[in-house]
Structure formats: C-alpha cells, structure tokens
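Hi there. Long-time user, first ticket. I'm pasting a complex I've been working with (about 231 residues overall). I'd like to know whether the download I got is complete or cut off, because the file seemed smaller than I expected. Thanks.
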Amino acid sequence: MLVISRRIGESFVIGENIEATVVDIVGEKVVLGITAPREIPITRIEVSQTAEQNLAAAASNINLHGFARLYKKRFPGKGDNK
Amino acid sequence: MLVNTAVLGPVEVSADNIFHLPEGLYGFEGKSDYALITKQDEDVTLKWFQAVDSSVPCFVVFDPFEIVEGYDPVVEPSDLQYLNCKDASELLFLVIAVVPEDISGITVNLKSPIVINKRERRARQVILANRDYPIRFPLFPQPEENQKQ
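Hi, the file is complete. Here it is re-exported in full:
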C-alpha cells in the first residue's frame, strides 16, 4: 500500500482524471473532496462490504433449523429473543 | 396482508409489520417493501425480513440489543432526518445475518443495521458512525476460530 501524507488543501491524483483533496480534518476525521469521471463509482468501503454481506445473507441457510437450541445455550436466561 | 414467505409459506402479516425502504437494501436496491415475520421455536423468537412482492430476498434478522450487550448505535443526523425521526424511542433496529450450512458459524452485520421508524413504517439500511462494530460479527464465537481472517 502506498502511504502519502497531505496537509489541508493539498491534493493527490489517481491515474489521469481522479483528484482527491484533503478539505478538512475534524478531530479524528479526514474530510476528502474527490473529483472523478461520472462513471467511476465512489462509495465508503462499508457500503460495498454491506452489499456483499446482504447478497450472502439472502443466499444463506435461512430456515434456522436447530438455531433455538444454540441460541439458548449462548444466551442463557435470555431465552426469549423477543 | 398475505405475504408469500421463503421459509414459512403464505403468512398473514399485520400492517405494522410491513415497512417501506425507498432505497431498498444495499445490493437489493430494487426491492422496497418488506415484512417482518416472526416464529416461536422453543421459547426463542426467530425473525425474518421478507420482501413482500416475491419470496426472495428473505433475510434472517436479529434485534441487536438482544445479542450484543451495550449495543449503542450512533446514527448519522442525515439518516435520522431521512427517517423523519422525532424521538429515538420510535426507532427499531434489525441486523442482518449470514447463516452458513453449519448454523453455529452465523454472523451478523452490526455496522449496517436496518433502522425502522415504527411510527411511519419507513426504513433505511444505515452505516453507523460507530467505529468498532464489525460487518461480520460471530453470534456463536468458537475459540479455535478466533484467529481466522
């Protein structure tokens, strides 16, 4: 992984037509401004990971046979997952 | 309304358990209406989030407050506004599970719950501001698997 450090207002480019600028740093958060061609999707990584998890969830073993027994063992006294 | 479920066949669902997600779920942007289906099994309530207009997709879901002690979701102001949330008490949280063939390997996505405004029955899958909530949280931790991935 390439690691570069930038100050507020400084930029870097990816390829020929993607430019990212550090707009601000607020506490622990870095605010980035990104200019890219319309056809390049830009999303937070959690979004694509969540989409991937949702697809896996929908294709998973959803009938839950035998689940209640495991659940009660894991959460004793909390038998009722209401 | 009668909902054709993937797991339980046709089930009558009351209007307060039907929710509208204008944007759908991530990866399923075309499906906007879901029913929350529950079934008792040995004192445990099983829950599914089921598309209403077709039997797929159907998701196993949990109330995160039941499975994670101290679950304290931080919802972005823009999401609260989207949900027309006036008070946190009107919100219902559900987390989606991935259930492998061996059910003990079940994981839930604590980072991206479905947040429902019960009053308006409007919902959105949000990415929480919390930093420490994993997308794949094992519900039944297995000691020998702790080092995996």
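A couple of notes from our side: The helical segments of chain B are 64-67, 77-82. Chain B touches chain A at residues 6-7, 25-28, 41-48, 56-60, 62-63, 66-67, 96-101, 103-104, 106, 109, 111-112, 125, 127, 135-136, 139-140 (CB under 8 Å).
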